[in-house]
Amino acid sequence: MNVKMNVVKTPLPEADVVRDIGYLPMQDGTRIAYISYRLKSGRHPSVFWYSHYKASAAPFEMAKQFLEAGYAFIGANFPATGCSEGIIDYWYDRKEGIYGAEVVEWIARQSWSDGNVGMIGNSTPGVIQFWVAAERPPHLRAIVASGVEDGYEDCFSVGGILQLGCVAWALTTDSEHAAGAEWRISAGDNQCAAIREGKQVVKRGFLDEVRSRPLKDEWWDSVSLACKEVAGQVNVPTMLVASWQDEFGGAARESIRLFTQLLTGVEHKKLLLMNGDHNVAGPEAELGSRSYGFVDTEQMKFLDRWVKGVEDGVDDISQVTVFWDVRVPDGDAKKAVAGWMTTHETWPEPAVERRSFSLTADAALSADEPVGGPAEGVRAYLYPTGAELVGSNQQFAVQPFPEGVLNYRSAPATSDMVLLGNPEVTLHLSVDDGDDTDLALTLKDIDAEGNVLFLQGGLLRASLRAVDEAHTYADEVVHSFRKSEKLVPGEIYEIRMSLLNPIAHVVRKGHRLELTIGAPNPILNGNSAPDEYPQNFYGNIPAGRPSINKVYHSKKYPSKLLLPILPGAVAQAPAPNPLTLRGQPSRKQSEFVPGGLPLR
């Protein structure tokens, strides 16, 4: 491998770069649209961006950072997207991985390539790297994937509930294909129009498949990378980047699963975790300005180590890095800074202790065990009338209808309480009408001045409460989602659930925690804190019928919150200004509202 730093003088003007727009023939004759940028002389390692968006129309501004770091840059569209030909069954067809592997090998054969290829990408371009790497192309040296979430419970049907945000994404994605095609045509591509008219076939719409499969079945298994047949086949150095508050689903949860359970054969791997939204990383043209600057640096160092072969110290850092209290000053993501960072050899962190806090009939989160008989300690709320609007600060400021939620608040912390992992909630619950109900939870931090900060949410359809014990671990309750078990009015059910993702957060001395139980919100919000990117938490249509839902708090029917606490740890920096946090809306609240209905 090339062990030179191979960095060019910056800034690099576009006039000093060769740009090619063309088509790569696959072994079966299908042609994949690509664009490449490279320096005018020399042989260079390559960075490959593979996507169903506008990859084959990637602008120079997107390639520039990699060119200046001494790489060639190649963007290519999935089959049957953009200007690429293809006959596929649906998105996440295995052909995407097969063709991507062929593109890797084509890159390695070019006269300007030194034979070393790395992949980058956020969201779907992050997911697809695993499908490509599973084919084990000989010249693929490393993958750097962020915002990775796919499949049933981590993206499209989180908690067993169809996500309207993902429906909207699927419906609007075609406009991205068209925009990339239009750009290529304007740049002189005289083949694209004919390809889009007659040489792109998707046999079954992905959205149609998703909507026709409300339970997790074999088809869902076949389109997820989180399995031995896909992620389990990866054998190149792998970096995963995820944020706790990713608005499209369980990116941190899925990344941790991949890292700990399926990439066991990968010797060199890194997991970076932090607070933020869906775009804390990634080179996408429009959203690249949203990636944190320090994450850009970490990703480039990983590429330099495993694609260039530069001894840059990446090997000496622990496998898991957690960035705490990442804030974005003045809205400039390139200046994002973490309050501090911690490194860990594995996940979950072995030192974490899971402590139980009881939900009580007087709306408290208490370290004491529940008391009283089965008929005591009951609270009720009117479903589905109350929803926490998680999105922009403006939306979050609209507090839920009090009779439609139950709120539980802890006493002020007497010392810093450091949370690292996924909280678990156990509820004993009944409905008085209908045969189902959806649970939408929010966990928040409240300081002494009444500033309420969103930490994490939780979603679960009660009829899909069955726990997959074989895959449930200390840090996460996993549901099978294979069978619907409807509710009977008046019967009490135990429901266990983790939140959408783990968290790393310090409940500072004097702060409180608040847990809210309510219903999903079917209205998608256009912006997230700090008002720059769509937020889709709880974009769901509630199941069941209007009902008086009861939560029980007795010794026989204990409801509780299990918190992952790092003993002895304290905050290493002052609390951040909430307005500098991405994906974490905040509001000012003058008093605690317990919520709920009066019981006779």
SSE layout and pairing:
Layout: E1 17-25, E2 31-39, E3 44-51, H1 60-68, E4 72-77, E5 86-88, H2 94-109, E6 113-122, H3 124-134, E7 140-146, H4 151-156, H5 164-186, H6 192-198, E8 200-202, H7 206-211, H8 218-222, E9 238-243, H9 251-262, E10 269-274, H10 293-308, E11 320-324, E12 340-344, E13 353-359, E14 364-366, E15 378-383, H11 393-396, E16 406-410, E17 417-421, E18 424-430, E19 438-446, E20 451-461, E21 493-498, E22 503-507, E23 512-518, E24 547-552, E25 560-565, E26 586-588
Parallel strand pairs: 3-4, 3-6, 5-8, 6-7, 7-9, 9-10, 10-11, 14-16
Antiparallel strand pairs: 1-2, 2-4, 11-12, 13-14, 13-25, 15-24, 16-23, 17-22, 18-21, 18-24, 18-25, 19-20, 19-23, 20-26
Report a brief summary of the structure.
The chain is of the alpha/beta class.
Description:
By secondary structure, the protein is of the alpha/beta class. Helices cover 19% and strands 27% of the residues. It is built from eleven helices and 26 strands. The protein has helices at residues 60-68, 94-109, 124-134, 151-156, 164-186, 192-198, 206-211, 218-222, 251-262, 293-308, 393-396, and strands at residues 17-25, 31-39, 44-51, 72-77, 86-88, 113-122, 140-146, 200-202, 238-243, 269-274, 320-324, 340-344, 353-359, 364-366, 378-383, 406-410, 417-421, 424-430, 438-446, 451-461, 493-498, 503-507, 512-518, 547-552, 560-565, 586-588. Strands 13, 14, 15, 16, 18, 19, 20, 21, 23, 24, 25 and 26 form a twelve-stranded mixed β-sheet that branches. α2 packs across α3 (124-134). The protein starts with 16 loop residues before the first strand and ends in a 12-residue tail after the last strand.
